Amino acid sequence: xxxxxxxxxxxxxxxxxxxxxxxxxxxxxxxxxxxxxxxxxxxxxxxxxxxxxxxxxxxxxxxxxxxxxxxxxxxxxxxxxxxxxxxxxxxxxxxxxxxxxxxxxxxxxxxxxxxxxxxxxxxxxxxxxxxxxxxxxxxxxxxxxxxxxxxxxxxxxxxxxxxxxxxxxxxxxxxxxxxxxxxxxxxxxxxxxxxxxxxxxxxxxxxxxxxxxxxxxx
Length: 218
Hints:
Elements: H1 3-27, H2 36-48, H3 52-78, H4 84-105, H5 111-123, E1 129-130, E2 133-134, H6 141-155, H7 165-188, H8 194-213
Antiparallel strand pairs: 1-2
Helix pairs in contact: 1-5, 1-7, 1-8, 2-3, 3-4, 3-5, 4-5, 4-8, 6-7
């Protein structure tokens, strides 16, 4: 997959991560399906206060995210080179559709968020660095730090004047996705998951078409 396609896929996936994380945050009353730094902090605070019961849910989400990441990374390692992105995106789409199907049966329970955490763990195995910045991941702390570095370089004229735009776009994509996720979930509930499920499946199909068209092309 060439860089313009990687960039487009990456920003769409980053927006999707913000969308899903906002839904998970609402469902879990302050926990996350992709922001594991926040869940780790929540777990640490609960342990420090002796509220071990409060540490269970963050711990389960962390383990679930790790499991999703491990499985997707394994799929990426063993898959033929042209089909790595296709296979991981298909795996993520199945998980999001699974979350939606479970949510139709158990709309009030946080079990849906475990499928979403699996999906978000998987998503980080889809793309690597694109044009010098991370796109498609489910977290933007590194992008914000990189944005600061590149702004400093631009101001001091030691780097490209617009080198910061990519990292800013990654952060903005996550923000827009989170706003959309919260708004749509507030309006239609669990049916809000139709959109990220459809988007992930659509990206998997597009990646498959791209891989098929470029077989044997290095």
